[in-house]
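Sample 1 of the test manifest.
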Amino acid sequence: MLPRDSAQPPPGVGPVPGADTRQRLLDAAERLFAERSYEATSLRQVTAAAGANLAAVNYHFGSKQGLFRAVFLRRIEPINTERMGRLAALEAGEAAGQPVVLEELLRALMEPALDLARQEDGRWFARLVGRAFSEPGEHWTAVDAEFHEVRSAFVRAFARSLPHLPPTTLGWRLFFALGVQCVLLAGASQHQRITGGLAGDLAPEVVLDELVAFAAAGLRAPAGEPGT
Amino acid sequence: MLPRDSAQPPPGVGPVPGADTRQRLLDAAERLFAERSYEATSLRQVTAAAGANLAAVNYHFGSKQGLFRAVFLRRIEPINTERMGRLAALEAGEAAGQPVVLEELLRALMEPALDLARQEDGRWFARLVGRAFSEPGEHWTAVDAEFHEVRSAFVRAFARSLPHLPPTTLGWRLFFALGVQCVLLAGASQHQRITGGLAGDLAPEVVLDELVAFAAAGLRAPAGEPGT
DNA sequence: GGCGCAATCGAACGTTCGTTTGAATGCCCG
DNA sequence: CGGGCATTCAAACGAACGTTCGATTGCGCC
């Protein structure tokens, strides 16, 4: 009677019972968590949007936090896999003699996530991820172990690509670079408001170029403080 | 019986009645809104932390949103005033012939806010502001009119300082620059977690230098997309 | 001394929250 | 055909929410 946090049934096992309530719950929760926030979203809103019974959430995911965790893991795993794959490709080239270009490293890290933002079914999740940086709450800390492997691998790669930077400086600049990415993921729909309408529409792949150019320039900035 | 949203009584008018409940409510709410979030903070937590009665919030501020608005306006007005003052000083020099250095423009915009983050009593507010970029909810939209004047003035100044950038590009890069600032405000306490402990401690004024250097380099990045 | 008023208070309002329960439902397999 | 099982369902749980109410307090001023 209580599968609690069981893995989903094998994908092609046959016609799932009821058009997969589990999936509809994940989709609805993803949208609502992104649109409002975790705290501001009630399970009644989620189940209503999913056309499911209120108790379905606790049946399939154990709790509201379990639902959040499932929403998150469903999308972040493929992204992190692709990130690691791209990084491995770059490092293979590096071992073969050609050094890693900073922009390529940034793309390997950022493009998998930004790709999501331009797909119809990933837009909500992108907004959700963008808030991981600034939103407090234990629903996030319960999930950021998923980033550990990717993070440390990329930090090492960046350190190799920018050997002249002292570790502390590099750390802060990476923090900034990741921050810009998150801000873009969270607020692409808000940039008009924030810049007062100055920034017009831009094709998504161009925004990625802008992001990579901005972050790369920031990471490569001269070491000491320049102005003033 | 109902002052609702009245302005606070004149500052030096005499010994305020009860050790200023109003002020204690603002302080407690500021900390809790920053520490948790607006949605996750209850008025009962606020009034308990302030040592006030539950009804005091609705008496002094009309509603929870009114409390949030008051928390915000109390701090943002001096900050925006200083920003405008610094900008005016730069523009005066500009009119006198010496062009505005991009780094100085960034400092005029960012230093007043970052100063807050290194003062004991402004730290919580800094964290709160940092979430304005990514946190949804009407408590924010009810307050962002306060940024209109500062925003448009600075956007014009940046456009003058970077005349070679097409407006769309400038808009996105300003969005990125403001985003980095917010990320720093929101997450200075989280950078260790996010970069995996690579970034060590850094004196706050050095972090400001790093932020300005990063943003300036990003804003000045070559126009088209550089690498691939 | 007593009126008026701003402020605080305890208590309750009606809602909504996340979670739990136990009974129905529909399907597969023996 | 019928027992077992995963799933769905309506209903209720106690707790906590934002807000409102009327009474009470304490001070300044005629």
